[in-house]
Amino acid sequence: MNKLRFDELSLSPEMQRAIADMGFEEASPIQTEAIPVIMQGRDVIGQAQTGTGKTAAFGIPAIESIDPKDRRVQTLILCPTRELAVQVSEEISRLIKYKNGISVVPIYGGQSYDRQLRALKQGVQIVIGTPGRVMDHIERGTLQLDAVKKIILDEADEMLDMGFREDIEFVLTKIPAERQTIFFSATMSKPIMELTKKYQRDPQLVKVVHQTLTVTNIEQVYYEVRNNMKMEVLSRIIDMYNLKSLIVFCNTKRMVDELVSNLQARGYFADGLHGDMNQTQRTNVMAKFKAGTLEILVATDVAARGIDVEDLEAVFNYDLPQDEEAYVHRIGRTGRAGKSGKAFSFVSGRDIYKLKDIMRFTNAKIKLAAVPSYEDVAEIKTNLFLDQIKEVIQQGKLEKHIARIERLLTEDFTSLEIAAALLKMNLKEAKAQAASEEMKGPREGYNRLFVTMGKKDRIHPKDIIEALTENTSIPSSKIGDIDLYDKFSFVEVAKEYTSEVLDRLGRTTLLGKPVSFEKAQSKNAMGGEKERDRDGGGRDRDRDGGGSRGGFEDRPRGGGGFRERNDRERNSRFGKREKTRRW
Ligand code: AMP
Asked: Where is region (Disordered) located (predicted)?
């Protein structure tokens, strides 16, 4: 189906700006269908699963119709669970970022009434709540609904399944008759249809229909991965299969940028492709990818449309696509010309429902795979390395090397010992390389933070110091050493300021580019899941680069070119380091 660009949807400039900040490139199918109809003021039944962009599909038109001068509740959104209410409220908060005078509050069971009462008293135009708690507030007289113009039931089928029918009906009867009633539901069950008949006026059904498409030749698997572990799992899979030509799909431009810098920091040859890049930049990236100097292309659907690459080994859905057709288009880029390809999808939380839709639509069996452990990766890499040795032996032309090794044989070493020593040296070199990649611990009383910008971004130590001192209360005397690399940097900050820095600068912009400050991993934590678990918190702290690529990465890939590859790899992975000692 044709998807619309957001600038084709007659949205306010403030809304366009917020959407651009969120990194959305184009409206998802359900947004394309639903936004114009909701904006016309009609009652709507939207059939959409979670993950399709449904929140913005009803959130955008709801926000656009709010009168900021009127502080009364104008839109009420009901959600089945507190988690969903919070999620919807967060998405709406991002969408109202540039709208002055509009506020939103989630109200749900389990949270103290006081906080909710304070928010409601101050005046708020958008209320998102679970049915029970909303009903309580209505009964206590603390939620006034006489100015409500829109009522939205999100995941209506789920609410009915959870036994909220009476509460929902109670709320619906308290909303003025002159209103717009919108239902979103993944299924169109009989009880839903009864509810719409009773409470909606001439509703328009909005859903995304598509033909079934099938994909053959492609091995499709999915991994259940929490968002903060996706990067780690991606690199393990790439390493394990020794992938050299792949596309990783993300849903937003922001995610593309973030993933590219993380992959580069880990030493992969990766670059991104998205709608904000000009033609020359795109052509350059594509030329490098086709020539094989770039191994990983990270792209949005829009950017990948129309690019033609043969011989892809694998496609990753780092984010599951918002519609099933996009899934087929994405993975169809591998397994061309009768070759077999691999498609890996990351599924977190409720994505599983979307994956089930995809399976239904594509008639495909997408198998759950276990996330490879470090031992699995190491074992497979060892096997790959041994296979390569076999290959080199079969290719022959080893006379010169044999003659050199014979020198040791005369000294009474066995060939097995010599081979083992070479293997060990290879391992050691890779380890030393990883270790040299600045895994040292911070000085006493300080934490070492990883910054996702480096010299290539033209960043100077003073930029990092300014970012810290201007946005947090840290004085410059509490900032330690700063190490700049090509694509990332490290900065030491006094422990007492670390959490403030991470809170304020976890994600920000510097020199006009997105940047994040994160806690760096210690040397011992190189690839150590246990270590990560111990320091808890759930942030992705694996970006110091190097760790996960220890092992055999310096092996010659394919035939000759060992040295060249090695140098290239080293240059790209470490760049030239520039150190600023601060005291
Ligand atoms: P939802 O279906 O509302 O749960 O949305 C799933 C995720 O998709 C959320 O993280 C949204 O921020 C994101 N999203 C919504 N619309 C778009 C879009 N047009 N492009 C990319 N991501 C989107």
From this structure: 516-583
